Amino acid sequence: MRGFYEIAADDPGRPALLGDASTTYGTLLTRVNQASNGLNARGVAPGDAVVTVLKNGLDALTMMLATYQIGAYLVPVNWHFTPEEIDYIIGDCGAGVVVAPDRLTVAELVSGHPDTPPAHRRAGSMMLYTSGTTGRPKGVRRRLLDLTPEDLYPILLRKSWRHFGLPQGGVHLVCSQLYHSAPYGQAMMALQFGHSIVAPERFDAAETLALIERHRVTNAFMVPTMFHRLLAVPEREKHDLSSLTHLFHGAAPCPPATKQAMIDWLGPVLWEYYGSTEAAVATMVSSQEWLARPGTVGRALDGMSFTIVGDDGREVPPGEPGLVYIGGINRFEYHGDPDKTAASMRGHAYTPGDIGYLDDAGYLFLLDRRTDLIISGGVNIYPAEVEAALLEHPSVADVAVIGVPDPEWGHQVVALVQPAPGVVAGAELTAELLEHCGPRLARLKHPRVIEYRESLPRTPTGKLSRRNVREAYLSR
User: Can you give the residue ranges of every domain in the chain?
Assistant: First the structure.
């Protein structure tokens, strides 16, 4: 099998980017080679970091592939960040080159440089900065191998890519920003498989359905919030989405009712995986497997393993919840923070900080983040479970559930609800939602307070920082 660079050389007319800025594999390779040579001319060597602050599109794809063939670490930064936040990352990773509209543009980088492959090709990697729950963000850095991209290709195929089940050729839709690990990884994999890319600047539910139909999209990565918005699109059934064979999702827990509705609509094309920036992909579960075990995120992939650890530091048996540790991951470090690296490990196993349990067959079920756990009256309450129940109500567009201090119970459950368009917030809706919770949640899990918000602060990948929501709520 051939990767991007070989496909582009052998089949330069193959469509690479579809849409307003459409281009071919051959044209993209030309820009990639020029950018690689431009980076080398500016002193970038294997192991160096290159920061990019770019929106989705041709420039972002160019930099992904250019750094990947010169052994550099690509550090893509959220273009919504403030100058201070961007400068911190630039300083922390020691980047000598920063590619951004107000600094060095891709057009300036490629100008005057040869379109031939760089002299010394070596596979690079991405170094994504993750904020975690406290402190400044840290870069997740993996050891680079002294291999060309072509030599690394079969290793990646054997360890990870084969589990996605994608054929050579297809159309991949980018639904989130390419500065996030999953969208980056999916787009890179799609290019290595010879797929065409559709990369809008932002996610819009109705436009997403139109793009899938227009470009005959075969695969995409989404997050559960996007599913919720797609299901709310009026006349969504009128779109021909039959080209979709693989709709991957992850990054956040998916309410079972939402996933069931997606499968009922699109068929068994949903594939869920669990992992993290640090651990990469640890599971993959098909729609059929999920329907047999609703709520599971799958079993460990070949070479991976799960251990569930209780509060006493000991492994717990199947069915008992605890902190999830993932074994068999590729070695990584938090750049410049060995203490944080050590704190996340248990031997050679890593924890993303999630609470979950294994069933008797080894299928993993997630409950919530350890940092978001609500303890009320000595009982553990998982916000994600309460959110999933509330999201089943048609009047709820989004919801965040947090625990706030309570002198009697320790914490009380508070739900911050974004009503669906046209729904009036107030006492009548609150009564409806509490009645809705009755058959779905034990009484102790019911929200003690329901307040309404015009919107909730989710990232483009659908993640919600309950810590930030909680702090904002308590600081009123």
Answer: 4-202, 273-370, 373-474
Rounded CA-CA distance 245/270 in Å is 8
Extract the tokens encoding 397: 């567009």
Long-range contacts of 152-161 (CB under 8 A, 24+ apart): 152/123, 153/1, 153/3, 153/192, 154/1, 156/192, 157/1, 159/303, 160/280, 160/281, 160/301, 161/189, 161/192, 161/193
Which architecture, in CATH terms, is 373-474?
2-Layer Sandwich (3.30)
What is the widest separation between alpha-carbon atoms in the chain? 71
- In the block, tokens 């273009």 appear at 79
Which stretches within 162-299 are classed as H helix? 181-192, 205-215, 224-231, 256-266, 287-292
- Express each pLDDT in 274-332 by its tens digit: 988 888 899 999 999 999 999 999 999 988 999 999 989 999 999 999 999 999 888 88
How distant is the alpha carbon of residue 113 from its chain centre? 34
**Nearest Cα to Cα of residue 282 among 343, 215, 351:** 351
Specify the fold of 273-370: Luciferase; domain 3 (2.30.38)
Asked whether the CA dihedral 168, 170, 171, 176 is positive or negative, the reply is negative
178, 373 Cβ separation under 8 angstroms = no
